[in-house]
Amino acid sequence: MAATWTTGIVASGGEDIYWEYSAVPTSDGHPNIEQPVVVLTHGAGGSHAVWFQQVPALLDAGFGVVTWDSRGFGNSTYRSGALGATEAASDLEAVLDALQISEPVHLVGQSMGGWYVTEFALSRPERTRSLALCDTIGSLFTDELREAMVEFGRRGGLAGGGGPAQVGATIAAGRADTTRGFLYQQLGTFHTPPLQEIGTVLSETIHTPEEVSALGVPVLVLAGDSDPIFPPGPLRNMAQLLTSATFVEIADAGHSPYFEQPEAFNQALLRFLQA
Fold first, then answer.
1. How far apart are CA 136 and CA 234, in angstroms?
2. CA–CA separation, 166 vs 7, rounded Å?
3. Residue 121: what pLDDT?
4. What CATH code is assigned to 13-24+64-273?
5. Taking the chain, what is the end-to-end CA distance rounded to the nearest angstrom?
6. How many CB atoms neighbour CB 264 within 10 A?
7. How many C-beta atoms surround the C-beta of residue 81 within 10 A?
8. Where are the domains of the chain?
9. Is residue 240 within 8 Å of 211, Cβ to Cβ?
10. Higher pLDDT residue, 253 or 214?
11. Residue 131 in contact with residue 118, Cβ under 8 Å?
């Protein structure tokens, strides 16, 4: 049976948060909220739309999939002036409540989204089944990862060089697949996110590997081998500080392996989710 695709907007903290839910329906045609759910949380260069290469693969593997726009991105508003990982965790909870998803979910966060899913997992452990941190430190600073962020800031950071397009310019897809690289750039032109505020939020939101390890859930740390923002070496070292963590490096990929090398990314993610 073909998958269903539903969309909606939920009010949260003075904002309207956009979500999409994809799943193979029940025999009577209704959305199936009983199957395990994967939540995909985008980075500062994206929105819900960037996951178009992951959603079909996850559906084929038997998962329901939630994609959503964090406040200020995509179709979600940013009117309140309140922005951060705490607000994002509350927004995601509102999305899951609107969908009546009460069972623990698999959390996947890319770059900025890693901060958001880590915050959700730590503040709502009863709703967390696993945690995947993709090209992100997810607020788990080490000395070398903090230096990597400082260096990224020296090069202009999130707010430099044209907003999301600047982040998109770091992907390796442009050198191997110009069509995919161009599409990435285009997806970043449909909104104007609060990148300056996001940079401050990310630098000031700090958790420890010990906190995440205490959750007792499986953790995946995934990195592109050519990521200029969070290089694979420091991310591997971070993963070694976590109990029950798996590290995967994606070849020929920069900061967005899910977009640049979707087949390899999907295989790594599914191996982790199905372990």
1. 10
2. 29
3. 98
4. 3.40.50.1820
5. 26
6. 19
7. 8
8. 13-24+64-273
9. no
10. 214
11. yes
